[in-house]
Amino acid sequence: EVQLVESGGGLVQPGGSLRLSCAASGFTFAIYTMKWVRQAPGKGLEWVSSISVGAVTSYSDSVKGRFTISRDNAKNMLYLQLNSLTTEDTAMYYCTKGAGYGTNEVRGQGTQVTVSS
Predict the structure, then answer these.
(1) pLDDT at 114
(2) What are residue 90's phi and psi, to 5 degrees?
(3) What is d(CA 103, CA 55) in angstroms, rounded to the nearest whole number?
């Protein structure tokens, strides 16, 4: 069974930083593109960032230059470094396994990030 467990969220002041982690299990982590998506209160899901099997990264325009995605295939871990946070970044952040090899996309339970003074 695919499991994705996020951690690292919390309350931070504007301009602050957080590092989100995602522990993956139940599948061959190294062969899947992994993503972070988020959902702000009252809004739909928003793609934040992706990292391919070959560690090629991509970011939404809203986070480019402030967030950094990374992965550790030896530890089955996905990370998202969040810097220069603004109130607009307040959301539930979800670790997501990409679809492929006949499997569907899977999201974790999420970790809440709240940016407030």
Answers:
(1) 98
(2) -60, 120
(3) 20
